[in-house]
Amino acid sequence: MTSRTLSQWQLRAAFAARLSDMYGREVPAYTTLVDVSREVNDDVLRARGADAERLGSISRVTAERHGAIRVGTPQEMSQVARVFGALGMRPTGFYDLREAAASAVPVISTAFRPTDGEELARNPFRVFTSMLTPADPRFFDDDLRARLETFLAGRELFPPELLALADRTEAEGELPEAEAEHFLQLAVRAFELSTEPIDQGWYATLERVSAVAADIGGVRSTHINHLTPRVLDIDELYRRMTDRGIEMIDTIQGPPHWDGPDVLLRQTSFRALAEPRAMRTAEGEVTSGALRVRFGEVEARGIALTREGRALYDRLLTRIDQEAAARPDADRGDLARALWAEHLPATERRLAEEELAYFTYHVVPDRPRDGSRPPADIGELVDRGWLRAEPIVYEDFLPRSAAGIFQSNLTGEGARNNDHAGTAYDSAWLSGAIGRDVLDPFALYERQQNDSIARAARELQLDGALG
């Protein structure tokens, strides 16, 4: 009898579930967050019916997670790319949190995620992965950089056995059940919180620069920094968590709550909790300490915006900042909603017409059967019942929102010397550093939309391109 094999998406789903179980044991408030998210999702589904599943089935939304980890070097980033590559997750998007954060957050990031629509529907697990930037002189002088790079070079985050299994899985697209079980055990263990004592003096040295730098470069392992369930009503979740006595950060990051379509991504979290950690003093004594580095994040996902839509979003954020500075007594949320109502289309139809958001288009089974020829215009096809437009879910992240979550959970502002010029990093640099192309999210969404239009044209036997 042949042994059962697990495909990449099955491994991805199993890894996400085990990681969630592990993180719930380590951070019990995360389990509360998951429970409240499920309650809110059930209530929204009852209240809104099918409309609640406009951006994904309730089973997908309830199972959905994104994780966040932090590594120290390009080599470590390359190794984690191999682990996630085994799970069918590819580096997508480049995020520079150094520039997005007001406080000291010396990291650049990408997100590992599935990129195919069917794979996302099966399990959309993503991991936002940040890498420390020791070469940036705004944060690290020459001496500290040399000490930090030496420390990072001397640790091993991922055992060779895990990496070998990951490479095999990525090459073959599956693993036999026994090897799959071993791979999952090794992979989950790599992201558990270590019990190894932390060098108190070294950690404190880095913490003076940045709490994020200390969390990455002050320990000899990595760990899940947060896991994030998805919720259909993040404002209601925020209220319910607060009612349970769990301290939330001050705001919900991202677009405001308003009467129009949900776009991009809204995020919030409970504050980082003090967790007991073993600390080694300069005298070699091991004492009990506590660190606040891990928190529970939750997200509500909206429609993916085009480049033009994203540029409009960024302009509106700048306007909100300007108006909030000019009117310090005004409620920031009210200012944001007013600007949204003035400048952002209030319907999905107008978002599509103005090419501000991405949609897939599907031929309607009970389309007109009166012998008429379908028009060659997408908008007309939708209006006259030939096509159905479905919004594409935003699968990625917002650097300013991510930085806002990081900042809200930091114990201090850290140190940043702006007399120095920052070291330049971009998507091309990261691609070269990890030996894998960092994909452009806009290109992925555009291809998904264009493929659906081409399929619709073929089904409707339209010879020319749809406009």
Outline the fold blueprint.
Elements: E1 5-7, H1 8-26, H2 28-48, H3 58-63, E2 65-71, H4 74-86, E3 90-96, H5 97-100, E4 107-113, H6 117-122, E5 126-132, H7 142-153, H8 160-172, E6 174-176, H9 177-190, E7 198-199, H10 200-209, H11 211-217, E8 226-229, H12 234-243, E9 265-270, E10 275-280, E11 286-291, E12 296-301, H13 307-326, H14 332-343, H15 348-353, E13 359-363, H16 378-383, E14 387-391, H17 399-408, H18 427-434, H19 441-459
Parallel strand pairs: 2-5, 7-10
Antiparallel strand pairs: 1-6, 2-8, 3-4, 4-5, 9-12, 10-11, 13-14
Helix pairs in contact: 1-2, 1-9, 2-12, 4-8, 8-9, 10-11, 13-14
Cofactor: Fe(2+)
Pfam families: HGLS
Keywords: Dioxygenase, Iron, Oxidoreductase
Describe the protein.
The structure is a single chain. α4 crosses α8, α8 crosses α9 and α13 crosses α14. The chain is globular. The chain is 46% helix and 16% strand. A five-stranded mixed β-sheet has the order 3-4-5-2-8. It folds into three domains: 342 residues, Roll (2,3-Dihydroxybiphenyl 1,2-Dioxygenase, domain 1), CATH 3.10.180; 38 residues, no CATH class; 63 residues, no CATH class. With 467 residues, it is of the alpha+beta class.
